[in-house]
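REQUEST FORM: STRUCTURE PREDICTION
Request ID: SP-0412
Submitted by: Lab K.M.
Chain count: 1
Length (residues): 187
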Amino acid sequence: MNNLSIKELNMETWKDFERLVQKHNGIWGGCWCKYFHPSPPQKIDSKEAAKSYKLLLVKEDRSHAALVFDGDTCVGWCQYGPPEELPNIMHKKEVESKMTMPDWRITCIFVDRDYRKNGLSLFAMNGALELIKKSGGGVVESYPQDTEGKKINNSFLYNGTKEIFEKAGFRYEGKKGKNHCIMRKIV
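STATUS: Completed
RESULT:
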């Protein structure tokens, strides 16, 4: 893993992203990392429909992610975007009643099962922060799991842990729902 790099999700990197998602059965039951995006006009009732919607978002430059590459192989990502691109956060009313609107949100972090436990979540997040900086920066908000030191099933860690965000310089802003928290950083 000495050959790690970050590339932006776009049509040039779509096939690499697609291979990783397909390797993992569509990610979290076929989500294709589209859950936090605006609801599509048609109901998504299959993994293929989810993939098509995500591809449309990428084609229209309405889906952003920092893709982690090990050489030529995509091995993870960190999804980010402005709130209007990622409006479907959980506990939205609670968050918006406590906080001013951020400039950016980080909503998903995913690492290939063969690469986990090597610090790639933090690498992906730092890649996303660099891409955000290149796009003008501002207040970045995210909602990681606050594990409180407990072992948590990976399926609940779709946005990483509070500890990873602390390592990246995010500040704890308060609880969100039962097990998540609000974290912010200015880039």
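NOTES: DSSP finds five helices and seven strands in the chain.
Reviewed by: T.R.
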